Amino acid sequence: MQTNLKKLCFGGGALLAFAIACGTATTTQQLAKPKPKAKPNMGDFIGLNTHTVQFKTDLYRPVTRSLRNYHPMEWDFNDSDPSKHREFPVTHNQINWMDLYGKWKKEGFTIDASAQFESMDPDKWKDIPKDAYQYGESFAKYFGSTGQNVVETIEVGNEPMKFSEAQYRSMFENMAKGVRKGDPKMLISTCAVALGKADQWSKDVEILKGLEPLYDILNVHSYAFSEGWPTWKRSFPEDPKINYLKQIQGIIDWRDKNAPGKQVWVTEFGWDSSTKKSTATGEEGKWVGNSDTEQARYIVRSYLVFSGMEVDRAHLYWFDDNDAPSLHGSSGLTRHFQPKPSYHSTAHLLKTLEGYRFSREVVKRPGEVYAYEYVPVTGSGDRIWAVWSPTGSDRKAEVTLPSPKGKVVRAERMPLKEGAPEKVSTTAVAGGGVKLQVDESPTYLWVRL
Questions:
Q1: Coil, strand or helix: which one is 234?
Q2: Which of 300, 326, 355 corresponds to the end of one domain?
Q3: Using CA atoms, how far apart are residues 295 and 289, in angstroms rounded to an integer?
């Protein structure tokens, strides 16, 4: 989504042809169907959005290893003119990118730079093919594996609303070609895409057809809105009535049919939670946020649900907020750089599942209980089950899960504050099942085989 901060800060086809020529009745999907790939390490999967000099590495290290930074391209031009590209790494406003990216990489973070050109009107780009190509090539040469080796991924745009479909395709194609020339190892992501013209922020994924060699990642932004303007009310992630997960699954299905093997990243999702009520007048005063507890629960459950889908990484929006009771004004894990309950729950999630990957759905009963199994990336060690009520009504219930085929040696609930998490009692039942009390905060069970 476009945010107040953003507005302030950023101003296969050849194979098919061969098959047809040979008289082989084979579809693109049959030709290119990839082998199932291993699920990602949750330590790499759990990502966070940030913005340049505002990010505090020591504060956010407990919650993520994967950063997505909003990189304003306008800073890299003189006079806001794309033909006047500056030499990296110092921007026209005297930000040294290596002071940021270099430090973040040294401290163990991977970096996805969302290269944003949308703060500049399209008419500023007098020669999109030439200037976009030059930017992509120089960016990749400097920050990529053959240069400073600090940026893993570049996104060609975030939410380029001002640019038409044709303008964006030209921008993407030429910048991506430049990146491929500058560093073939640098991953390339699209801007936010959706099926059709789903909203004003995303581009129709169909405009990427024919450009498959130029991207590695399809990028999705999804928010759990149950209502739009003016309330922007958000529901719980598993709510079957909203488009939250459906929008992501739609891009996964499109990928499987049209671009097998490409990654899918959810690079924006989140919930607002403010301690204040809106003081705005008129329609803007009707904004509805979530509680701190709801935010914490829904963020963690989203990471879990995404991990069970064919999603390769998820970046939460946002890292810090100023407690503003407005759309995207209170989405942070911290409030004035002080941890919120969601900070503690996300830190616990990372600590619990780093070094693990999603294995299977043990139970998935909508409105009742979800239980997901995670296994060690190394292949040895305890398995972990995450169990929760997939609801948004503060529901509590006693549930019986199937036999874990091992002994539950530890059980604890997602914390909402600093300190030791709450211990949870489990009971073995006849036939090998396990009984426990669940609520809307995930409980984690360590199972020893």
A1: strand
A2: 355
A3: 9
Place of tokens 């890299």: 76
Instruction: Tokens for 316, please give them.
Output: 């939460």
What type of residue sits at position 428? A
Is the pLDDT assigned to residue 2 strictly greater than 50? no
132 and 213 housed in the same domain? yes
DSSP classification of residue 90: B
Q: How far apart are CA 252 and CA 237, in angstroms?
A: 17
- Summarize pLDDT for 325-360 with one digit per residue, the tens: 999 999 999 999 999 999 999 999 999 999 999 999
User: Distance (Å, rounded) from C-alpha 262 to C-alpha 354?
Assistant: 24
Position 17 pLDDT exceeds 50: no
CA 19 to chain centre: 37
Write out the two tokens for 404.
């874990």
Determine the Cα–Cα distance for residues 248 and 265; give it in Å rounded to an integer. 9
Q: Quick check: 426 and 398 in contact, CB under 8 A?
A: no
Q: Are residues 347 and 354 in contact, defined by beta-carbon separation less than 8 angstroms?
A: no
Backbone angles phi, psi at 253, to 5 degrees: -65, -40
Buried b (16+ CB within 10 A) or exposed e, 401-429: beebeeebeebbbbbbeeeebeebebeee
CA–CA dist 29, 39 (Å, integer) = 21
pTM for the model stands at 0.92
Q: Do 322 and 425 fall into the same domain?
A: no
Question: DSSP class of residue 324?
Answer: -
User: Could you tell me if 365 and 321 lie in one domain?
Assistant: no
